[in-house]
Specification:
CATH architecture: Orthogonal Bundle
Strand content: under 5%
Order of helices and strands: HHHHHHHHHHHHHH
Number of strands: 0
Shape: globular
Radius of gyration: 24 Å
Length: 287
């Protein structure tokens, strides 16, 4: 074996070892907060402040869950239901709008198409927290602040999802197939409903999943728009509980246990959607 080959093999092994090491560091960095949340959910309030943060103490997980679910007439269950409704209906509406808009941008040639797509990309770069105050001022003018529509309407319009839908439409729908359908006499609406939607199922599922997670974790828009705890999503409800530390009593253990419970639906949802987002990632990487 030549010296050049030996040197190349050693460099390759070092690169592999470095890559694996970085991945392990990233894995530990990602799992440490989850581990802390799981461990802290099993502790009483005194153990939470008096024991090592990453180690178990006395087991109080059952009582913590029971107190979290039953506190204030089961308000936590109401918040969870609100989050499911906001995320489910909001992401369904955003998926429908995004698929239609992305398909139109990808498969139709019209004046201003490039400018419209550029505006869509530019809008997708704006952080959602930056838009919370302008949206509040806008909806206050039309009297929707405090209603669920002040959340649903912004959730239905997601420029990044439109961009993803355009990418999926260009990648998965051949122009020749559309032309053949037009030659056979099919209208555009029928082509979209019977052909394009079926070919974009993976893209639609991926968009739905990403938007669902984004809406579930959204905090600033509900903070600005909602003014009654019965309409709070779980993120805002737990924040409201956390503020009680500054007032009458310490609810840290309930906040931590509620945070753990709020993660579980997302984990189940992502696992159930994995066959779609795996193939969706492959389609996006090919593009």
């Amino acid at each position: 074996m030549s010296t050049t080959t030996t040197t190349g093999a050693r460099a390759s092994r070092r690169s592999v070892a470095l890559t694996i090491g970085l991945m392990l560091v990233f894995l530990l960095y990602s799992l440490a907060p989850v581990w802390w949340l799981l461990v802290s959910s099993t502790k009483s309030l005194s153990d939470l402040y008096g024991t090592f943060g990453l180690g178990f103490a006395h087991m109080h997980l059952g009582s913590n869950i029971s107190r979290t679910l039953s506190y204030d007439n089961h308000i936590f269950l109401r918040w969870m239901l609100n989050s499911v409704l906001y995320a489910g209906l909001g992401s369904a509406g955003a998926t429908a709008v995004s698929i239609a808009a992305g398909y139109g941008l990808a498969k139709f040639r019209f004046r201003g198409r490039g400018a419209m797509f550029a505006v869509t990309i530019g809008a997708s770069l704006l952080p959602s927290t930056l838009l919370a105050l302008p949206l509040y001022l806008l909806f206050s003018k039309i009297g929707l602040v405090g209603s669920v529509w002040s959340l649903y309407i912004p959730y239905f319009v997601n420029p990044f999802c439109v961009y993803l839908a355009r990418v999926y439409a260009e990648s998965s729908i051949p122009d020749e197939l559309l032309e053949a359908a037009r030659i056979d006499g099919a209208g555009e609406l029928r082509i979209f409903r019977s052909i394009s939607l079926k070919l974009m199922v993976t893209g639609a599922a991926t968009i739905f999943m990403l938007d669902f997670i984004g809406i579930w974790n959204n905090f600033f828009l509900p903070l600005f728009m909602l003014n009654g705890e019965q309409t709070y999503p779980v993120t805002l409800g737990l924040y409201d509980w956390n503020l009680s530390v500054l007032h009458s009593h310490d609810m840290t253990s309930l906040v931590i246990t509620g945070s753990l419970l709020s993660v579980l639906p997302l984990a189940v949802f992502i696992i159930s959607m994995q066959k779609y987002w795996r193939s969706g990632i492959l389609v996006g990487s090919v593009r």
